[in-house]
Amino acid sequence: VLERAPEFGEAGAGVAITVNGMVGLHALGVGDAVRTAGRRIRSAGFQDSRGRWLVRLPNLPAEREPTLWLSAVHRQRLHAALLNAAGRARLVTGATVTAVEPGQPGGPQARVTYRTEDGTHRIEADLVVAADGLRSTLRAALLPGVRPRYGGATSWRAVIEDPGRLRRGPSATLPAHRPAGRDHRQVRRPSARRLASATSQR
Q: How far are the Cα atoms of 10, 112, 158 from residue 91, in angstroms, in the given order?
């Protein structure tokens, strides 16, 4: 794992993980730890920028319809569970990836070049997973003519204590927005017993 930051940590807000995401986490052996660190919530549906319902999902128990349910967890707790499960994996902090050379099935492995305080390094791998953000080095290497484009939506996130909201029952609101609109909606997802993730989108 090549981490650009000088140390592992995540100061973000909450994240809602769908059932297929939890299946992947269980395959990695961290599904139970992530579920314990967060809270199970149900997706209520989708609203437009005025709060009118576009789709309302039925209120069914997870045993009957697991795809309606999400696992909400604070990003710090998610990262802590993944870091704790990393075990003997090689974790390199302060590493800036500078180049990626794709491999070939049945042929040469992919090669990743990265830079740290003590110089430039190169490693080989069967699979390279890029999680390097908006200005991805891997995307630029594989798709040199592709550039990210602003879609007209901005999001502000925060984590607040909201026990009153949680007592009214777990829920998640996932609103839809006009790309260039000025309307704001709030998304509130309980991510632990006494924490809720609040997202304001424009």
A: 16, 15, 28
CA dihedral 74→46→182→12, nearest 10 degrees, is: 10
Q: Cβ contacts of residue 164 below 8 Å, gap of 6+?
A: none
Question: Average pLDDT for residues 103-129, to the nearest whole number?
Answer: 93
**194 HSE (CA, 13 A, CB side):** 0
Number of H helices, E strands in the chain: 5, 11
In whole angstroms, what is the distance from residue 192 CA to residue 202 CA? Answer: 26
Round to whole Å and give the CA distance between 118 and 122. 13
Tens digit of each residue's pLDDT (9 = 90 or more) over 138-187: 888 788 888 888 877 777 776 666 555 544 444 444 444 444 444 444 45
**Which residue, 12, 8, 31, is CA-closest to 91?**
8
CB 176 within 8 Å of CB 47: yes
> Helix, strand, or coil here: 44?
coil
**What type of residue sits at position 74?**
H
Phi-psi domain of 117 (left: phi exceeds 0; alpha: psi -120 through 50; beta: other): alpha
What is this structure's pTM?
0.68
pLDDT score of 73 more than 70: yes
